[in-house]
Every structure is written in C-alpha cells, then in structure tokens.
Amino acid sequence: MTIKTDFDAVVIGAGFAGIYALHRLRNELGLKVRAFERAGGVGGTWYWNRYPGAMSDVEGFVYRYSFDRWLIDNDVWRTRYIPQAQILAYLEAVVERHDLGKDIQLNTGVESAVYDESGHFWDVTLDDGNRCTTRYLVTALGPLSSRNIPDYPGRDLFAGRIVHTGAWPADLDITGKRVGVIGTGSTGTQFVCTAAGLAEHLTVFQRSPQYCVPSGNRPLTEEERAAYREGYDRIWEQVRASRVACGFEESDVPAMSVTEEERRRVFQEAWEQGNGFRFMFGTFGDIATDPAANEAAADFIRGKIKEIVRDPETARRLTPTDPYAKRPICNSGYYETFNRPNVTLVSLKETPIREMTARGVVTEDGTEHDLDVLVLATGFDAVDGSYRTMDIRGRGGRDIRTHWKDGPTSYLGVATEGFPNLFMVLGPNSAFSNLPPGIETQVDWIAELIEAAEERGAAAAEATRQAEDEWTLACQISAGHTLFPKVDSWIFGANIPGKKNSVMFYFGGLGAYRARLREVAEAGYPGVTFHGARSS
Ligand code: FAD
Ligand code: NA7
C-alpha cells in the first residue's frame, strides 16, 4: 500500500548540497519538494561560519557549482579564494536565480524522521511541532555542521564571551579586545591570521602543531578570470576526473625518484605558488602515501617554520613531528603571525587548560590568561555528527545511531541498508575531495536513482547489506593506502572524545568514485533493492 504524501521529497539542509538537491529534484525531475533549514538563511557552512578570516581554502574557480554556467559568467569574485561573505552571496544568488526560496522553509529544524514500512513513506517531525510526510528523504545535513564544543571547569564563571567559529554572532567585533582562540586547524589558523591584526592581544591555545603552507591569496587578473570562463568545460572535465578535484593536475612523480635538490625546488615552487592541496598532491604523487615522501614534505615545512619564526621556543612549539597527513591547511602568513608582539602561543600539550575563571583561562602552570572573548575553533563532530543529533528510524524502527554503533557506513556515501528512500549527500564514505563537485556528483546520482525507481513503479529503493559491506571494505582499503589513519583528525572521528575511530571517506579520488557510480547506474543498480509497488 502507498499513501498520498505531503511531498515527493523532503530535503534537510540548505547549504551547497540542499540547494542543488532542491533544484535537481524540483526543477529537473518535477517532484514536489520542500527543504527545511534550521538557520535563518540559506548557505549552510557559509551562513554559519562568519568569523574574521573565513574563506574557502580550495581556489574559487572550482569552489562552486558547475551545473550553471551563468553563475561563472556573472559572478563578481575577484580573488583567488572566495571570502565567506561572497560565497554566501553566491549561494543566495543561485537560490534566487532558480526560484528555490519559495520551497525552502528557514528557521526550521528537523527533529525526527521515521519510516513507515507498510506505506513506504517518511514521517518527518519539525522543531516547531509540525509534521509532514514524504516518499523520499534527502539529508544534506553537512559533513562539518555539528559543532564540537569542549567543556571546561568554571566555564559558566567567565565574564567575557565564548563563541564557536561555526556560529559566529553578527554583533561580535573583536577589534581592540583581548582574544583567546582554542584550536589551530584550517579554521583556527585562518582566524589567527586575521584576528592578530584586529585584537589588542591574541592568545593562541594550540593542542597539536600544524603543517601550514601559504594560500597565495591575491587578486585575480582579468586574463585569469577570462581563462576560467573560456576553459569552463575543460576545467570541469579535469576536476571530475581527478583525485582531489581542486582544479590542478595531481602529480604522479614519486618524491624519492628525484634528487634532494629537485625535491626542494619543487616544494619551494609550490610554497611560492600557494595552496595546501597543491602542495600535498600537486608536487609529488606519494606525499600522502609514502612515509619517506611524506617526511620530505614535512621536513621542508619544518624548515620554513624555523626560518620564519624568530623566537626559537615559539618555533619549537609550532613545529609538528607527526606525519603530514591531515586535510592540508593553507592560510595567509600563519607562522609569521607569531612574530607579532601582540600574539602569544600556549601549547596545551605542555600546559593543558585547568579551568576557566571570570577573567579568562587558567593553564596547568597556574598562568591566568585574561580574555574578553574566547573563540572555540575546535571543529566539528564530522560526517555522522549531524545524523546523531536527530532521531532517524528506518525499517523495523531501527535507530540510525544503533545502526552506526560501530562507526558510520553507507553504500557509495549515499544510502544505508534498513533506511529505504533515505539518500544522503556527503554521507559517510563519500569521496575525499573538494566538496562542491562531490556534492553535484552525488545529487545527480540520487536524482537518477529516484528516476529509475519511479520508472520501475517501485515504492522504495534501499541499499543491500552486502553492497554496503563491500563499499565499506573498499573505503577501508583506500584509507589503508594512505598515511591519513596514522594521525588523529576529524577525518576518522578522532577529534571527538569517545567517538569510535572509523573510516569515513573514500580515498580513491573523485574520478574513480564517479566511475564506480556510473558503473552501478549502467548495470541497473546492483546493490540497490527496489521494494513494493507504487500505486498511481
Ligand atoms: P552545509 O553547508 O554544512 O549545510 C548543511 C545545512 O544543514 C546547515 O545549514 C545546517 O543548519 C542544516 N541542518 C543540519 N541538520 C539539520 C536539521 N536537523 N534540520 C534542519 N537543518 C539542518 N570544503 C571544501 O571542499 N573546500 C573548502 O575550501 C572548504 N572550506 C571550509 C571552510 C569552513 C570554515 C568550513 C566549516 C567548511 C569548509 N568546507 C570546505 C566544507 C564545507 O562544509 C563544504 O564545502 C560545503 O559547504 C558543504 O555543504 P553542505 O550543503 O553539504 O553542508
Ligand atoms: P579541525 O581541523 O578539527 O581543527 C580543530 C582544532 O581544534 C584542532 O587544532 C584541534 O586540535 C583543536 N581542538 C579540538 N578539540 C579541542 C580541545 N578539546 N581542546 C583543545 N583543542 C582542541 O576543525 P576546523 O574547523 O579547523 O576544520 C574542519 C574543516 O572545516 C576543515 O577541513 C575545513 O575544510 C573547514 P587537534 O589537532 O585535534 O589536537
């Protein structure tokens, strides 16, 4: 039996993924779709992360959609990387251009989604108490949208403000203030570079030292912008076939196959050109996979820290010793910032935070760091974090949290067994790459799968256990070829206390991932079971 539902599809989230899913399903498939977004505006990451210095660290010509040429021909971006406010304006323009706003309900969180097995529909409950039903549920919750907020004794006593970078308040101006920042990932280092020029004093609380390279941000020339427009099709073809999808050719040259002098020349050239992904994947083909190659790159960056940072003790604390195997970080002058008289580095490995007081943060050595604002750049409960804050129940009332108790899994990053017609964008074990092209890839595939289900007259499409297990294994194998599991980071869930460390990405590259999706679709979706018959 199938019932008439309120919507054909409900999309949760209105970031890059939710916006494109709404466009694809409503404007191209002709479905009746409603998107729900907890925030007061569209944009997802770029709505929430308004901290000083926020910008993409993938270059602007590929940190965008490819589906609509108009968007590049009429875009106003002028720098190599796009600042937060411009990405947000861009996403708002996409929504307007494709008339999506009328079907996006803002300020509305989805609290639960329960699958009705006999009727083949999802029963969705919103945080305003309203409910609706839908045949398809597309979760575009964001892989980095559930904030990690550490708790410290005495936190409530602090007389200043505590903010997370992922929920930066519109009214907060740090100019002339005593600012502390905990966390030195992509976000923390971007913040530090900008905040040092604004704050009266900036205290950087660092847990793990980081390998950073310059972003090389600069204004684009008219010629470059014209080249992006003229080379549009070729650029996107290359992006889709590449590994990290960042708009450059990855190197295939093993680092140890060249002389030390040549290696240093290549690293120096990449350092001058800027960009973290280019440094890790464009210099040599095995920085992320071969320990000796990795050590050569790490050693080069360590040498730069020594050269740049004037105080030897600060340089020592800033210098990482573990492999260079996290998502590569780039920014504008991070190490140089520590030469400023108004910036202090505190190593939390040497002096952990003991407590907070009305005045600020006290470290184990008894020092009280006086602050007006404490910024938590402490990252996110990545990938499955946003799923775990919701009550999602599939067939037989199965709770997604129980389903993923040994770590999150999926079939191809988009579906999971026991949860029919639930399609995830950037679900666990999606491709590790620049994300907008990954999002477009998945949304297109989900739309095609929905079309296939409709054509068959099926009421539901669901991943099989076997297919999901095989994909999980493929992802584990792909991660095992890299050095990434050797270092603790959000990529494996290691940043969240108590979270089970597991593989959460496919490391075989976007090109290989897309080829696999294509193969599955062309073979008629082995790995997907089509259930029931849809009454017209
Ligand atoms: P999001 O943009 O996170 O959107 C998800 C939306 O879902 C959010 O608005 C959230 O409010 C909403 N939501 C979640 N749960 C619910 C619920 N239950 N009910 C209602 N709404 C809900 N990626 C790159 O590839 N390159 C970069 O350079 C890059 N830079 C980044 C910089 C920062 C500071 C951050 C935080 C992330 C960055 N990322 C980058 C990752 C970025 O998240 C993705 O590129 C992309 O924006 C993800 O889009 P999304 O739509 O999947 O998720
Ligand atoms: P990250 O990369 O997870 O970085 C978070 C930082 O916060 C990192 O330096 C962490 O140290 C630190 N951290 C996390 N928890 C704590 C606690 N409890 N105490 C002290 N320090 C802590 O998040 P980002 O937001 O920077 O980047 C995430 C992605 O979003 C990134 O790839 C961009 O695409 C944007 P650690 O290294 O774990 O020791």
UniProtKB/TrEMBL annotation:
Record key words, sorted: FAD, Flavoprotein, NADP, Oxidoreductase
Top-level taxon of origin: Bacteria
Coiled-coil boundaries: none
One matching Pfam family: Pyr_redox_2
Domain FAD/NAD(P)-binding, first and last residues per copy: 8-224
Name of the protein: NAD(P)/FAD-dependent oxidoreductase
Organism: Nonomuraea composti
